[in-house]
Inverse folding.
């Protein structure tokens, strides 16, 4: 065989060996990948199941979640597989279990329900030393209804009891028109209403930071507003904060005082009665400011009008004054 022919055969053989090695390597890699996919499939299925059941991300307060109708519960008893399975809580809050019968778990946590089942199995001499696992598979998210003077009224999901301050924070907190009283209506008990003291921006130690339960309704009352109009530096509506009281001197101070054109011998309070009638009260402002007369306490929705020296008749301008309250800007702030 000539040297050139030998070299050609050697090169061809080498190319064939390289191709065979590449094919074997690819086949091996495919088998490895197939094996990895087979192993990971159960984990993927578990992850899919968790996502579909809403348990992929467990909330912080999940441990305090109260069981309710519609929940799906998984029970596993180590020594007796006959109890193993998934059970739905009925509308009465009961679980229908084999041998045990009905077990009322509504309003309890998963841990408390597990303790009940263990005691039931032991006291009924069904099992001597029952080892029970109880897991929540599906749950309905309870809500708390927040209304009134909050930034974003509505219904918010809440799994476990929280402090009033935390609940109000869910709705963006009280508005500047919020009063110091919050009504809490307990779920399932329409006659049970709690009135809690909570002042926006006030001292936390003075607020009643009571507990609010899932299903409760929270309503933040609206505080009173007094309108100061006429010859003042900043006419508008002023919030009666804290204890809801405001007198004439404080109201004028909130409006940054009177102007040079103000006629101060008598100023007027326009007050609307519940029956729709109106009362006009003349207030001796100069005597009150000098300490020679008692100040006048204002009520919510009162209109304090400071006339000017050129005002022809206060009574003739009553309707225009009342109409001005509709477009008046509302301010929050205390005089002292």
């Amino acid at each position: 065989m000539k040297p050139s022919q030998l070299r050609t055969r050697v090169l061809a053989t080498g190319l064939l060996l390289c191709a065979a090695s590449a094919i074997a390597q690819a086949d091996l890699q495919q088998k490895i990948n197939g094996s990895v996919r087979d192993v990971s499939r159960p984990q993927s299925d578990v992850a899919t199941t968790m996502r579909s059941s809403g348990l992929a991300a467990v909330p912080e307060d999940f441990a305090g979640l109260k069981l309710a109708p519609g929940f799906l519960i998984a029970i596993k008893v180590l020594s007796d597989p006959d109890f193993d399975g998934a059970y739905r809580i009925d509308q009465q809050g009961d679980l229908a279990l084999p041998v045990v019968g009905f077990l009322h778990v509504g309003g309890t946590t998963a841990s408390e329900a597990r303790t009940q089942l263990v005691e039931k199995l032991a006291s009924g001499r069904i099992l001597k030393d029952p080892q029970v696992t109880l897991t929540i598979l599906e749950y309905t998210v309870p809500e708390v209804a927040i209304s009134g003077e909050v930034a974003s009224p509505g219904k918010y999901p809440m799994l476990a009891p929280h402090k009033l301050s935390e609940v109000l924070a869910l709705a963006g907190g009280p508005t500047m028109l919020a009063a110091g009283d919050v009504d809490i209506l307990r779920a399932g008990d329409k006659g049970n209403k709690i009135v809690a003291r909570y002042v926006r921006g006030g001292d936390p130690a003075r607020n009643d930071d009571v507990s609010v339960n899932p299903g409760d309704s929270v309503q933040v009352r609206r505080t009173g507003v007094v309108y100061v109009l006429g010859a003042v530096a900043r006419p508008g509506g002023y919030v009666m904060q804290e204890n809801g009281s405001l007198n004439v001197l404080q109201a004028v101070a909130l409006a940054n005082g009177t102007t040079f054109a103000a006629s101060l011998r008598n100023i007027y309070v326009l007050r609307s009665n519940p029956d729709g009638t109106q009362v006009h009260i003349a207030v001796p402002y100069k005597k009150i400011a000098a300490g020679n007369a008692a100040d006048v306490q204002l009520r919510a929705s009162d209109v304090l009008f400071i006339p000017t020296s050129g005002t022809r008749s206060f009574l003739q301008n009553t309707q225009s004054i009342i109409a001005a309250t509709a477009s008046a800007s509302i301010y929050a702030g205390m005089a002292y």
Notes: The chain is about 25% helix and 25% strand. The helical segments are 3-52, 110-123, 164-170, 248-254, 285-289, 318-324. The radius of gyration is 38 Å. Residues 225-331 form a domain with the Outer membrane lipoprotein wza fold like fold (CATH 3.10.560.10).
